[in-house]
Amino acid sequence: MFSVTDLSTYLYCPRKLYLQQVLEFPEPPSEILLLGSINHAMFDKINKLDESIVSSITESTNIKELYSKTYFTLLKSILKESNLKEFSLKSLDVFHDIWPRFQEEAELRAGNVLSFIQKNNIYGKELWEKLTPKYLTEIKLYSERLELKGIIDRLELTEGSLIPYELKTGTPPRDGVWPGQKIQLISYMLLAKENMGKTVTHGFIHFIKTNENRKIILNPFSEIEVRNTITEIKEILNADNPPGILENKNKCNACSLREECYNL
Ligand code: SF4
Fold first, then answer.
1. Quick one: which atom of ligand 1 is closest to the CA of 245?
2. Ligand 1 lining (C-beta closer than 6 Å)
3. Using CA positions, which residue lies closest to atom 5 of ligand 1?
4. 42 near 102, Cβ under 8 Å?
5. Residue 168, φ and ψ in degrees, nearest 5
């Protein structure tokens, strides 16, 4: 069984996947990985706390303030637990860099809840039970049929349908999404559809840096695309030697295994 990230690594560079899977080179720690994990931890906690936040809302609650304060406290505690010193990062600098995105997220979520309350006039537990959309996070899914497993960053649940989100800390391309991101998202859409038995028509790559959602539609050829990629991966991983070094040096310069790769 392959992980969804194997597919995106393969599309980034087949040699990198070979180094990871066949030669078992570990991913070295990096500042980008650390900042990515802080962002992911924030979204994970936000989604897990949503039920208690929503259930605590009464007629007199200042919802905007409640979300903003909760997210502020969460970020402070995550930064406290993160190993920022390893990369000589200062907590305050990272906070100033990351906070505006989560402040915006807090305002967005508060706005959603507020407009639902204005339409339905319900509070507390009942509000949580009836509120749509709801969010699930870090959902583990697998499929024997597709030979695929993965963990979806975020699922938006509305009545009868699911919308997967893959969160990215890197820079978005000018248009659309990078090929590895597309295969990741369509894989998650197929896994979510099969595992959760709900309608999945599209998903989003969410670029944290620019707070942008880029949409990918699930179409009848999506599964073929995933299956073909898995077939190509099997061929690469069964070969006696790794594939050659990429000609695209921009990719190599951004690659976490560059040193190991070039010294092989
Ligand atoms: S350095 Fe370049 S060729 Fe080597 S694994 Fe990374 S992306 Fe691939």
1. 3
2. 13, 15-16, 19, 245-246, 251-252, 255, 257-258, 261
3. 16
4. yes
5. -130, 135
